[in-house]
Write a structure and sequence with these properties.
heterodimer, A: alpha/beta, seven-stranded mixed beta sheet, three-stranded antiparallel beta sheet, 10 helices, globular, B: alpha+beta, four-stranded mixed beta sheet, 2 helices, 4 strands, 27% helix
Chain lengths: 388, 78
Amino acid sequence: MTSTHGDRTDPPAGGASGYLDTASAEPLHPAARAAFTAALDRGYADARRLHRTARDARLLLDNARAVVAECLGVRPDEVGFTSSGSDAVHRGLLGLVAARSGAGRSGIVHSAVEHSSVLHAVGWRDSPAHAVVPVDSLGRVAPEAVAEAARADGVAAVALQAANQEVGTVQPVDRLDLPADVPLFLDAAASLGRLPLPGGWSALAASARKWGGPAGIGVLAVRRGTRWTNPFPGDDGLDQLGGNANVPAALAAAAALQAVLGERDEVAARQRALTERIRAAAAALPDTEVVGDPDERLPHLVTFSCLYVAGDELVAALDRRGFGVASGSACTASTLEPSHVLAAMGALTHGNVRVSLRRDSDATEVDAFCAALVDAVTEIRAGAGIGP
Amino acid sequence: MTDDTLEIDCRDLPCPRPVIELARALPSVPVGGTLAVLARDPAARYDVPAWCRMRGQEYVGEELTDDGVPRYVVRRVS
């Protein structure tokens, strides 16, 4: 049981209990650990060589691709492994642009709340045809506005997330009606393994550590018939993105994804009920607003902002009580700028906390978190001379 | 408008102090009156309007002082 009073530092009992930042990185899934350990002794060789050990590595890598492809509903040769989710985003999105820049199309249409890796890819090359589509107060784009922006001259691709990484709002990807010659790049990092994938995408990026795979593995999928060119040095094709694949990590990522998808609906239903408790506890705090869509959202994630509270103080106060959470407040960011997601939504940016549950988070842990939250916010506000 | 506006200078205060000082100063302004908070804190651009929405006050807009400091104007409506 976690201490919820004062500055006690008792760690919560059991494993990763108290760690509520899975939207950054999920603890390694047991299936990933088993696959990784087994593959370390078999997957070290260069899969391009022709000897027996290399064939062993090739077998493991092909197996990982086949498993991920099946999980995504695509063919194995439509899937490649990258060195991170951000790397998959950069290669996927910029590769769609690279294949069209000869035709004078270099613009990327994207929502105002895309992940920073998408924004960095957009900012890598200036284009007069880049366009940002605003979101409403729930953090959602209007599909008509995206389609209209995509019809402008010089647009090479549309980048849209399946769900938002900070506030959990699901985007209306299935309702996009894009021009036939403008491909959709889908950032599925926040939602893969948690919600069914939307359709209609030409390229997709995801990050293994968000679903319980190891860090340092991303997935890039490019559908057959999509014009895509490697935007960085190296061969075209998805087999050797950025050099030799980390075969044990790729296999572990695939094993975790397969396991997570097998349990997805059961885990999501449990997490949805538990996050409802946190939403209710946060909403009951004075001058606190829960951010993001209450229904059409990721099942494991809750974000809220508390007036008059510094985000870094709140994160530290929760950490002292045994709970690890993220924050979009400026004081918690390396840039000292507030979250562009919260800003685009018109949400309060200070006193912000993002809670994201583990697969094994339970009611006891969640209720202890809610008590710690009330305690921490009350303490910080009292310290600032502001009542509860 | 500027003449009767109560101005609070939070230009060197970090987030969320400008919003805290804004909330503290509100009772000293009559209903219908305006107050302005000076803040360089980049979060104030989003958090002053958000405070107005959450606390039922009216956000009038952002100006710049002569020496280039953002000045966020609020009207007390309750």
